[in-house]
Amino acid sequence: MNRTKKFANLIMYFIFLNFLVSSLLTNNLNYKQISLKSNIFYPKSSYSTSNVSFLALGDSYTIGQSVAYNERWPVQLSTRLQNSGYNVGPVEFIAQTGWTTADLSTALFREPSNIPYNLVSLLIGVNDQYKGISSEDYRTNFKYLLNLSIRYAGNNPNHVFVVSIPDYGVTPFINDDIQKDVIKKEIDLFNLINYDESINANVHYINITSISRRASDNLSLLTYDSLHPSGKMYSEWVDAIEPVIKPLVGILNEDSEKISNSNFFSEYQNYFLILLFLLAFIGLVLYTKLAHYLISQKFTGLDKNKQSNVFQK
């Protein structure tokens, strides 16, 4: 009976060993939860494990018409985050002066090369208003671009932020008061649309329109063309954007560190498994020998007892 029990224990030990090894082999190392607003899981390998990747979509306000590269607001945002100790890579731009929502959509027929991105920004619509595109068409096109932006962010809306359209009607470029008022109303309408769609899509929204209107009495907020924002105004935009984005970037950086740590195990996983097999095999052999020894000792003791009983008789 005892011998059968020890053999059963040996089988149970072997089953446990197989279960342990199988668990390690199938351990879910490829997924992590990084969303703050959803329970969607994304492959770890999807996102950058070194620098936070940032894609900026838009028009002249995103590309920074008439300002130096380092004065563009996405670059200023990236620089501030880097100066705060966050790992943010170079900004990738898909933006051009004069683009409408339809132009940007056409440009995105060819997808960006580094999908998915950790961060995606979208600022588009001023040229739709300028060219007289209807609010209905703007909504349709903006919604399409917003869905693309979410997809470029790994289908995670928490990694997307929309920036409102600035009001160029306050600039010296527009010198008719009636036209200024029309522009203001239409910009407000378009911003109402992009705000509504952003809330519905559960993405971040930053309103910088009120900042742009300060240019009405402060020309230092405009470039030499008296139309586009200066680096100084873009810096004020970043003042509004940074508090919204910074916590997310902090979480992304923490996730990157965790991924780097787990990558150490992933890189040497085969060696760890071989070592585990060897240790398990040695343990199994020692357990078997010990069980065999104990059983043999017991039978030896029984034989001696039988012999002593014979002599006593």
TrEMBL record:
The keyword Lipoprotein does not apply. It holds the Pfam family Lipase_GDSL_2. GO terms for molecular function: hydrolase activity. Keywords: Hydrolase, Membrane, Transmembrane, Transmembrane helix. Residues 56-234 form the SGNH hydrolase-type esterase domain. It comes from the Archaea. The chain crosses the membrane at residues 7-25, 268-288. The keyword Thylakoid does not apply. This is SGNH/GDSL hydrolase family protein.
